[in-house]
Amino acid sequence: MFTLTQFPLPYATDALMPYISAETLETHHGRHVATYIDNLNKLIENTPYADLSLIEIIKESANRPEDKKIFNNAAQVYNHDFFFHGMCPKCTTEIPQEIIESFGSAENFKNQFKESATALFGSGYTWLVRDGDKLKIINTSNADTPIAHNMQPILTLDVWEHSYYLDYKNKRADFVDNFLNNLVNWDFVAENLSK
Ligand code: MN
Fold first, then answer.
1. Confidence of residue 90 (pLDDT cuts 50, 70, 90)
2. Per CATH, is 97-193 categorized as 3.55.40.20?
3. Does 5 score more than 90 pLDDT?
4. Burial of 109 (0-12, 13-18, 19+ CB in 10 A)
5. Residue 161 Cα, ligand 1 centroid: separation in angstroms?
6. Strand 134-141 to 152-158 pairing
7. CA-based torsion, 119, 123, 128, 133: positive or negative
8. Averaged pLDDT for residues 93-100
9. pLDDT given for residue 52 in this prediction
10. How many angstroms is it from 178 CA to the middle of ligand 1?
11. 30 CA to centre of ligand 1 in angstroms
């Protein structure tokens, strides 16, 4: 039977300071994500979902309104794992060539990503995805995730308020700037692009 356990952060909780505080990461990873994992394990216990992988659970529950709670918790686990692995302390600043070619320049890519992330109303995520043969920037609402829509995630930013409010209050744009300029793990991005 499938029991999901907390995935470890790929760095210490104070490693992303000063852009993300240890308090934010401890709360975000240690409490919010832990709760999604607990909920999911309880919801799938003794159901056919218990035999599936996390990605299979997401795809299977995506089209079943009666399983919305399962979808929401499973997608939140996946999205957070992807978000946290998309950042690192003192990363390379080299933006993969494919992104530069697709968006015209690194600057254009960052501007479009920032525009999308600041325009997202309410809770959700901004993503760089591969959709067919195109790279696109999209927003998803609440727990929704590109893998439920047959798109391949390349990078994501969590713009739920719990992701930045302790450090930035209402200044989401500053959080987005720091994410793009100081936190993105471009090696992780390049690895996803090569898949
Ligand atoms: Mn979050």
1. confident
2. yes
3. no
4. buried
5. 8
6. unpaired
7. negative
8. 95
9. 95
10. 17
11. 11
Q: Is the pLDDT of residue 1 over 80?
A: no
107 burial (CB, 10 Å; 0-12 / 13-18 / 19+) is exposed
Name the residues around ion ligand 1, CB cutoff 5 A.
158, 160, 163
State the pLDDT at residue 2.
60
Average pLDDT over residues 48-69: 96
Going from the C-alpha of 182 to that of each of 38, 82, 97, 191, the distances in angstroms are 32, 17, 19, 19
Round the average pLDDT of the chain to a whole number and report it. Answer: 96
Determine how many CB atoms are found less than 10 A away from the CB of residue 89.
16
Percent of the chain with pLDDT over 70: 98
Where in the chain are the domains? Answer: 22-85, 97-193
CATH code at 22-85: 1.10.287.990
